[in-house]
Amino acid sequence: MSLRLKKEVQKLSTNPPPGISCCTKNDNLNNLEASIIGAKDSPYEKGVFQLELIVTEKYPFEPPRIKFVTPIYHPNVDAAGRICLDVLKMPPNGGWKPTATIEGLLIAIQSLIETPNPDDPLMPDIAQEFKYDKTSFRSKAEEWTLKHAVQTLPVLTEKPACDNEKKSTKRKSSELETRDENDAKKLKEN
Question: Given this model, what pLDDT does residue 151 score?
Answer without folding.
Answer: 74
